[in-house]
Structures are given as C-alpha cells and as structure tokens.
Design goal:
This protein has 295 residues and is an alpha/beta fold. The protein has two domains: 29-115, 3-Layer(aba) Sandwich (Rossmann fold), CATH 3.40.50; 141-274, 3-Layer(aba) Sandwich (Rossmann fold). It has ten helices and eleven strands. The strands form three sheets. A six-stranded parallel sheet has the order 1-11-8-7-5-6. It has a three-stranded parallel sheet with strand order 3-2-4, sandwiched between helices. It has a two-stranded antiparallel sheet with strand order 9-10. α6 crosses α7.
C-alpha cells in the first residue's frame, strides 16, 4: 500500500480561491476591505521571507496589506506604541508581529498588547481561552490548517485514536484541544507525546492519526506506525544543502518508509506549510467581518 498524498499546496490554493470570492463580495456588497499589517523587528532573513510571503498572498487575494520593519535595536516601547496605533486604525483588521523578537523585547507583553479582535495569529490569551472553551475566535493558523487538511481530504476523525507528538503553544497544545472538541475534524481521543515520553512507539502504533510537530527530523519511523494510519507532518527540518546551495528539508516523519504503510500522508515541503499563511488570510477576513458587524 502506498499512501494518498494530502497536498497542502492544492488545498491552500482551493481555499484562497474561496477567499478571493468572499473578499470581492465584502467589497461590493458592504464596502469592506479586509486589512492586515505585518510588523517585523530586525532583518532576520527567514523572518523577512515569511513576511514577504504573507504580504504577497494578501495582495493577491485583494486584502489591504501594510508592512512595517523596525530596526533590530528598537525599544520595546516603540513596538508597543506601533501596536497601539494599529489597534486604533479602522483600516486594519489584523495585526501580526513576526516572531521571534529580539531578546530585549518581552514577547508575551507584545502579543498581549494586540487587541484580541485583531489577533489574527490566535496567540492572545483571550483567543486561546475561547478556543479551549469552543467559542467563536481566531484559531491559531497552523492547527487551523491541519483541521482543514483533515476535513477536505475526507479523513474521519470521530472516535479516532489521535497521537500528537509535540506540546508547543503554537501547534501541539492547540491541535490537541481542537481535536477533542465536538466539531468537524474533532470528536477524537487524543494522546499527547513529546521528547520525554517513555516508549513513544507504544502510543503511535495504536494511533489512527498521527500529528507530528516536534522538530526532530525523521523521528517517526515505519516500525512506529500501523498499517492504514493517517500522517500529518508539521515538521520542517533543514538536514543539508544541495550542490547549488538549496536547503534539503525533511519532516518529523520518515516519509519514504512510512508512506508505504500509511493510508494518507502530508509531504514536506508542500503539506502543512502552505496552509498556515492561508489560514492567516482566512482569519483576517473573519476579523473584517467582525469589525463590520457581519458575524
């Protein structure tokens, strides 16, 4: 058996087409233009690349997009003042501060300063709390993308044994909570594993669905999974370079070996990655609807 490939590239493309239509209707029927600002502190090349991709996607969808770059030695107060400015800017519905921040800036203080109604990353405690309670909120982008991949690829999660490997606030904890809930791509029995779990394979061999988000390349091997498992691989690990200097990427799952046992699997790259920016755009449109009283 060779696994069906769950393509995040194709799924993200389909969702973006849906968003284009929704944004056009918001403009035509309600005179609402979703607005997003991305704030970058410093000149980290990876962060610059991420911010550029977010702005390019926003522009392509018809979202009003602004990008602000502060010097790496900017003070915490300068950043907080900028956030306050956009909290009060009616043209801006979503505020994203690109992480990581320089060490002299308190990351939690910055994230908490964002108006929860404009927190399209879903990191503010208000939105995290609402998510845990199953209330209307902005879902964190990567877990939201995982839910869409499972739903749109026809994976039945109701009653399934799900093992999440990883306990980060960005992926592991939120996706575990979401899959417990009474919702599409939910109603699952969830086990959380991490790098200190004893005999992880005893858990993963029982799983119908494995979500790997631990940041260890090829950690999940073929002998750790059962036939017919569904694999969502969140890991993006650089394991070398090609002759022309391009990064060689690997997921947290040994793709080549595990795909021979799995029913379905996400590739790296081209799996969960493309979904994250797309869900950011979806949250921005949701924020614009909220501000306009359309939710």
């Amino acid at each position: 058996m060779t696994a069906k490939i769950i393509s995040g590239t194709e799924t993200a493309k389909a969702i973006r087409e849906e968003l284009k239509t929704e944004i056009a209707e918001l403009k035509e029927k309600h005179n609402v233009v979703p607005g997003l600002v991305t704030i970058l502190v410093g000149e980290d090349p990876a962060s610059q690349s991420y911010v550029s991709a977010k702005n390019k996607t926003a522009h392509a969808l018809g979202i009003h997009s602004e990008q602000v770059t502060l010097a790496a030695d900017s003070s915490e107060q300068e950043l907080l003042n900028l956030i306050d400015k956009y909290n009060n800017d009616e043209k801006i519905h979503g505020i994203l501060v690109q992480l990581p921040l320089p060490k002299h800036i308190n990351e939690a203080k910055v994230l908490y300063a964002i108006n929860p109604d404009k927190d399209v990353d879903g990191f503010h405690p208000v939105n995290v709390g609402k998510m845990v309670l199953g209330e209307q909120c902005y879902l964190p982008c990567t877990p939201h993308g995982i839910l869409e991949l499972l739903t749109r690829s026809g994976v039945n999660t109701s009653g399934a044994e799900v093992v999440v490997i990883g306990r980060s606030n960005i992926v592991g904890k939120p996706i575990s909570n979401l899959m417990l809930q009474k919702r599409d791509a939910g109603n699952a029995t969830v086990t959380i594993c991490h790098t200190r779990t004893r005999d992880m394979a005893a858990h993963t061999r029982r799983a119908d669905i494995i979500i790997a988000a631990v940041g260890v390349p090829k950690m999940v091997t073929a002998d750790m999974v059962k036939d017919g498992v569904v694999i969502i691989d969140v890991g993006v690990n650089r394991i070398g370079k090609t002759a022309d200097g391009k990064a060689i990427l690997a997921g947290d799952v040994d793709f080549d070996a595990v795909k021979e046992k799995a029913a379905a699997i996400t590739p790296v790259p081209g799996g969960v990655g493309p979904m994250t920016i797309t869900m950011l755009m979806k949250n921005t449109v949701q924020a614009a609807r909220l501000a306009a009283g359309l939710i």
